[in-house]
């Protein structure tokens, strides 16, 4: 069967489809549970979550499904806090804050590095079956602790080099993120510009250089993309944008609508929201900040600085100042229940297999 | 059979593989004929060819094969010749010329627009079976004239919009070039930045919006890429980099070696060589010109200005000042005869089909 792979075996799931752990309230317990109940792997996007919220989400998901699910965590980064950079960024952001009626905010952002360790403890406490990582590789002790507790570990790579680093660190499997992907780039061991490798080109090259199973990500939205990924050498896929527009997703309705009506040319790369390159639908914020991108504070500082703007814009239903993360094929997006989306994909794959001349040999 | 598609029918070829019409002496008559004799479609990269050279190549190919082959032409562009821009570019290029011992050259480049019409006349005269176009859509009269003479016309698109424009213009089929591709971007109806869509994301979106058959291009190097492209909705693939390193290819040996030893992170986008974005392996020229790219003359003016540097560097076997066009998966490149490459791909596909769980149902 096409849906029986090394990854479905290892994760004890029926369909080699993982719902990306998108951060920022998108991965509701309902979405995660729906994906897992449909035979895929639902994933909590715990990147920006407080430990309390993560704990309560895990509890809710356990009530909604007995199937495996995962948690995605962001490996913490510790950029230098440069007051001048922050002031310059705030100067650029101030007119936008004024326009939205936000009170002036000039606090120096505080990076709380203990959150990650607390998140890990919660994953261990609740024996969450799968833990994936973005923005780097955690310390080996953490990887070993998780594995010793029977938790499957998944790293993220955007180049062959990053994939090899993940394998060497002991990760069980790896998400290989092509440049087609929406949201933040997972790059951590090279220049961002040089890590923009298309999914089509990247998957087979990584497959030739690592022995741990590969999860293809970036530009995969339907049965064609899933099947093509398996042909290219992946053992599963991870889909973000496709699940973001699902009914159970907690994404803002404006965000969903923008994707459902979007085109591939609108999904551009910007560092302006967070200080780290990410793909989202072009809007006023991206256009206005474009020329200043290189001088903005690093992630996660810039992310903290724009937080008030993004959340106020969402409240005011003004999508021009929100981050509208989206991969390169919004034209394939649908507004379905997650289970319907997975069923549609399965049917599409079965149809390709039964109709495609290649299968008839 | 997997290799029986709408495109193999229409082109009367046995394998849905087209060798890209790479310009600049790469597509020797031997390469073109070898690809066609092996069951694919060889293609003359006539972009920068004089009518005389095109005519003699066609004659040689007809001696080497009775199978169909094609010619790729560049639709001419007529940018304003801005003397200031040219002088600024020459100032940047002068130290490189001096270093290579090239005599100062300050002629205003002349764009010869009659070449394209002469090339079309030769295609008609020799009844070349296939004519493909890059950098735009030729006038409708040309498309109709070719089609009325039984010549199959192929356009190039990098977005859904460009694909639709090609279909509306009457093209028989269309090369859909993802951002994974090497060499020049074929974009012509939008901003270059917004036309960098990964092959994985682009093919299915185009397939949903046009009814003419699609030839996938960008990041396809082996059986995995060919089969994945067919699954995504293409009826054939076009491969450039994979054929560039073949034994029959006329590419400079330094260029071949650079690809054979290259990595995916080295294949970057630059406008510095030609005034138009293209993907090639990073070298001194690309690095030095990076900060000036936006101020350079448009294609083809900048291309003419760097001509002496590129050819002198090749003579001196100095790859740092040559254009080393390359797609995003040099790690998959091989130095084989074209027929061996095609046979390897066929065997790989047959192996995937016979071993892949999906096929065993």
Automatic annotation (TrEMBL), chains A, B:
Top-level taxon: Bacteria
UniProt entry keywords in alphabetical sequence: Detoxification, Flavoprotein, FMN, Monooxygenase, Nucleotide-binding, Oxidoreductase
SUPFAM superfamilies (UniProt xref): Inosine monophosphate dehydrogenase (IMPDH)
One BP term from GO: response to toxic substance
A Pfam cross-reference name: NMO
Protein's recorded name: Probable nitronate monooxygenase
Family indicated by similarity: Belongs to the nitronate monooxygenase family. NMO class I subfamily.
MF (Gene Ontology): nitronate monooxygenase activity; nucleotide binding
Organism field: Aeribacillus pallidus
4Fe-4S keyword on record: no
Reaction it catalyzes: 3 propionate 3-nitronate + 3 O2 + H2O = 3 3-oxopropanoate + 2 nitrate + nitrite + H2O2 + 3 H(+)
Function description: Nitronate monooxygenase that uses molecular oxygen to catalyze the oxidative denitrification of alkyl nitronates. Acts on propionate 3-nitronate (P3N), the presumed physiological substrate. Probably functions in the detoxification of P3N, a metabolic poison produced by plants and fungi as a defense mechanism.
Cofactors that this protein relies on: FMN
InterPro entries, alphabetized: Aldolase_TIM, NMO
